[in-house]
């Protein structure tokens, strides 16, 4: 039977001690970059390792990149080794609840063809379920360095997007206000890439922070995309992180095969000659 990519707190709790599963805490605050690790130390799912968005799930920023470039393959392999992940082991990522950060780790695992899932509702769902919480560091034996080969077909580079904007459906996962250019709390310029369409990642969730049912998501995405082929869909956001949430939701809905623009808005605006748009169109 195919492994689910979304686990409830109850489903995770029953498997937590299994040797073929590893939980990873991805809580992170863009404004206070060490706050997520502090929360992990204060309390986390028993045995959960910690993944730092800047240090483990990204590369250092360079003049031509966005705010969260993808990690180099060798660095991501070292991270997996350090947390004790081994081949065939299901990695279950979680964050505060919505999955906006955890979905980046999920996507990276899939980028390298490795099994991964999200905890539905994240740490908040675990806490509300009354399950055990531990604190402090987690003693972890390093695993052998895994062999990783990226699937480059799952992502789009800026140079490729520039030449193919008319041929793709570019889906922007940021809030509607940021998409329209009314506010921009993180980047130097406000607006969106011309031709992009707005689909805030929060649309994938129920009011309680859990994912909407797969059939509802499928109906919503199919209506939104208007019959566009899935391989023409490219997901973007501010820095290639929350865009992974829409990629996850489409796969959960049975619509796999869309791609990530990893550089996203913060990389697009690095070159002032690239066009930008504001408003709803």
Strand ordering within the main sheet? 1-5-4-2-3
Shape descriptor reads: globular
The largest sheet is: 5 strands, parallel
**What count of helical segments does DSSP give?**
10
- CATH class of the largest domain equals Alpha Beta
Work out the number of β strands: 10
**Domain unit count:** 2
Which structural class is indicated by helix and strand composition?
alpha/beta
The average pLDDT value, as a whole number, equals: 96
Task: Name the CATH homologous superfamily of the largest domain.
Answer: Rhodanese-like domain
**Low-confidence regions:** none
Rg, Å, rounded: 18 Å
Under the CATH scheme, which architecture of the largest domain would be assigned? 3-Layer(aba) Sandwich
Beta-strand content? 5-15%
């Amino acid at each position: 039977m195919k492994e689910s990519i979304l686990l409830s707190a109850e489903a995770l709790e029953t498997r937590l001690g299994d040797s073929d599963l590893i939980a990873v805490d991805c809580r992170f605050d863009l404004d206070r970059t060490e706050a997520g690790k502090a929360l992990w130390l204060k309390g986390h799912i028993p045995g959960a390792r910690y993944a730092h968005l800047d240090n483990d799930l990204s590369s250092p920023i360079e003049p031509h990149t966005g705010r969260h470039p993808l990690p180099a393959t060798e660095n991501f392999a070292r991270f997996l080794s350090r947390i004790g992940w081994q081949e065939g082991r299901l990695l279950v990522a979680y964050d505060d609840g919505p999955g906006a950060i955890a979905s980046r780790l999920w996507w990276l695992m899939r980028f390298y063809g490795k099994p991964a899932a999200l905890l539905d509702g994240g740490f908040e769902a675990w806490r509300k379920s009354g399950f055990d919480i531990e604190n402090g560091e987690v003693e972890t034996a390093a695993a052998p360095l895994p062999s990783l080969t990226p699937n480059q077909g799952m992502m789009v580079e800026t140079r490729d997007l520039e030449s193919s904007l008319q041929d793709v459906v570019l889906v922007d996962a940021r809030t509607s206000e940021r998409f329209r250019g009314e506010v921009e709390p993180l980047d130097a310029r406000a607006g969106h890439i011309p031709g992009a369409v707005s689909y805030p990642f929060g649309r994938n969730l129920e009011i309680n922070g859990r994912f909407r049912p797969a059939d509802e998501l499928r109906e919503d995405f199919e209506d939104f995309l208007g019959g566009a082929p899935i391989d023409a869909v490219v997901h973007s956001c501010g820095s290639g992180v929350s865009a992974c949430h829409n990629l996850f939701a489409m796969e959960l809905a049975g619509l796999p095969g869309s791609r990530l623009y990893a550089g996203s808005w913060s990389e697009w605006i690095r070159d002032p000659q690239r066009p930008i748009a504001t408003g709803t169109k």
